[in-house]
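Fill in residues.
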């Protein structure tokens, strides 16, 4: 309303600009087709075999280079399954936490917060699970998360183009903003006494996961409302962080 001060979670936190240097190259049909279908993604150039490119509906203004499989194999990581198609893209524009929270204020979709999860395979797989279980967004630190890359896009299988990814400078401050927006913050920790199913309740939830091996940092735990664990067998010490994220998202979606 006019004259009323906006809630602090609407403020845009500062983060660095897009990374400078070479543009990322996506490869594989799912990653490239999803990038082409995303109106917010700028695809700068595409390489492919005649057979692979003939199966795509490409914009007439897009620079195309016909290449053989061996040439494209030298453009991507060793043994990467490029499926005869490679695209050079620009990173997506920044996504602001306050804007995402405002857009999601009327639904109960979960938020996924990653504390220094840096492996691009894991982050890509988590993006895929977040899209599959209709999460509102994922939140990571700017410096302690992987950049957009072909490896990440391949693991995400198209989810990078549809799942909002918020990068913040200060994760603790972001968790405070999430709490102000009415989310119950659940930190996943194998040593917790409470099971995740008992911790979820009826409120909107933010699921906070730490890096594989190290887990959540103490400061991140301090900015959670409760710590909870997955009910896994004592024969296994832990789960891969992307598997844990998928199970946690399923639990949140099954309330």
């Amino acid at each position: 309303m006019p004259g009323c001060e906006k809630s602090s979670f609407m403020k845009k936190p500062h983060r660095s600009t897009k990374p400078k240097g070479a543009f990322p190259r996506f490869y594989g049909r799912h990653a490239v087709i999803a990038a082409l279908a995303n109106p917010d993604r700028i695809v700068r150039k595409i390489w492919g075999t005649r057979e692979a490119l003939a199966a795509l509906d490409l914009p007439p203004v897009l620079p195309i280079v016909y290449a053989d499989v061996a040439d494209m194999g030298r453009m991507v990581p060793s043994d990467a399954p490029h499926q005869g198609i490679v695209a050079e893209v620009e990173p997506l524009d920044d996504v602001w936490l306050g804007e995402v929270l405002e857009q999601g204020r009327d639904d109960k979709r979960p938020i996924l917060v990653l504390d220094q999860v840096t492996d691009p395979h894991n982050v890509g797989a988590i993006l895929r699970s977040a899209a599959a279980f209709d999460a509102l967004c994922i939140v990571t630190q700017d410096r302690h998360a992987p950049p957009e890359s072909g490896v990440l896009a391949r693991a995400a299988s198209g989810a990078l183009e549809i799942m909002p990814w918020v990068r913040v400078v200060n994760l603790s401050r972001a968790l405070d903003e999430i709490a102000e927006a009415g989310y119950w913050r659940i930190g996943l920790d194998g040593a917790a006494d409470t099971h995740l199913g008992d911790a979820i309740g009826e409120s909107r939830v933010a699921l906070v996961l730490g890096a594989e091996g190290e887990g959540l940092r103490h400061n991140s735990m301090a900015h959670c409302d409760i710590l909870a664990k997955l009910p896994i067998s004592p024969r296994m010490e832990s789960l891969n962080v992307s598997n844990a994220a998928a199970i946690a998202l399923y639990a949140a979606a099954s309330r």
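The domain at 97-253 is CATH 3.40.1280.10 (Alpha/beta knot).
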